[in-house]
Amino acid sequence: MEVEVVTARPRVQQVSRSHLSLELGHLYMEDLLRGPKALREHFAMIKPWADFAIARHSGSGRVSTCFLVDEYFSRIRSPAELIPELIEAAAEAGIVIDYLARESGCAQAGEVSPAALVMARIVSIPPQGTNGLRPSAHETGWLTNSEGMSRAGGVDQAMAALRPWSPPKENGARSHSICMDVQLWDAPDGVRRWSCAFLAAVWQLLRLGLLRHEGKSIVTPAPWHGRHPDHWSELPPVIKLSERAHPFYAFRTMTVLETRFAQVEAAVRTILSQVAVDPAVSALTARQAASQGIDLPDDLVQRISHVFSDGV
């Protein structure tokens, strides 16, 4: 007697989405040490861009705002000190922060690691004509958009000095190449430490609502009232600060940044170009967008945008 075994796939959860997730800048912890005056200057600088983005979606458009605190690499200031200063400085500029997130929540959110989920979905683009000698990003922690950026080990490396130099070539370059190697993680103490660029890519995928674990969304913004705790680990990965906020997840994202972050965000786009989103999640998102009359690009990278400004 033959027995047919059917493996059930978990049902994919649909999430409510805004039209746009607007990130109100990004600051390193050392920037946050500069105090309330620096925060007021920051929000005053990005205010015109925030107003522009929100105005483009006026009427029936839904825009939610967010701010990511970089406490993954250092936790110099406590949430009890910093969060009230952020809210007050933004309010003085006429800006409302709807959601506040911890960068470490991109690495670990409860029992689930968003970063590990994304790492598992990295599909490196094989350069044309290569023989596969370069180890995968899963082994090395490095991702490339090019052929010839680095040599494999062993004989190939030993013979490199005997070969004439040849330039690297970007995969899919149009006329000329822009080549990039991006570090995704390292392990200085034997424990994997995710890079800033990789966590920023995870953050984009979280905002787009494209990550699932066993079919379920992995981050649910939690309303927060009253005093904030003394330790960042006591906060959920994302907290909701405004009761009138539109959904945290969105069909598209926009991030307003100073120009010093341009290189990191270029790396983010390189990473996202090699992430294979769960097809079931992609299909569900496409149907949701179509039902609302929203034109959603198939290309993941085209759903994210950046504004770089130093206030000039």
Description:
This protein has helices at 29-32, 36-56, 79-92, 104-107, 114-119, 137-140, 155-158, 196-207, 262-272, 279-291; strands at residues 18-27, 63-69, 99-102, 142-144, 146-147, 169-170, 181-183, 185-186, 193-194, 212-213, 216-217, 222-223, 238-240, 250-257, 304-308. The chain is of the alpha/beta class. The chain has a domain at 18-119 and 197-308. It has a seven-stranded mixed sheet. The protein has a two-stranded antiparallel ribbon with strand order 4-7. A two-stranded antiparallel sheet has the order 5-6. The longest helix has 21 residues, at 36-56. Mean pLDDT is 88; it is low at 1-7.
Describe the structure in brief.
This protein is α/β, with parallel strands linked by helices and 312 residues long. The protein is 30% helix and 18% strand. The chain starts with 17 loop residues before the first strand and ends with a strand.
What is the average of the pLDDT values?
A: 88
Strand content: 15-25%
Number of helices: 10
Q: For the CA atoms, what is the radius of gyration? A: 21 Å
Strand order across the biggest sheet? 12-13-3-2-1-14-15
Major sheet details? 7 strands, mixed
What order do the helices and strands follow? EHHEHEHHHEEHEEEEHEEEEEHHE
- Based on helices, strands and strand pairing, what is the structural class? alpha/beta
Query: How many β-strand stretches?
Result: 15
Secondary structure: helix percent: 25-40%
Low-pLDDT windows of residues: 1-7
Shape label: globular
Cα(first) to Cα(last) distance is: 76 Å
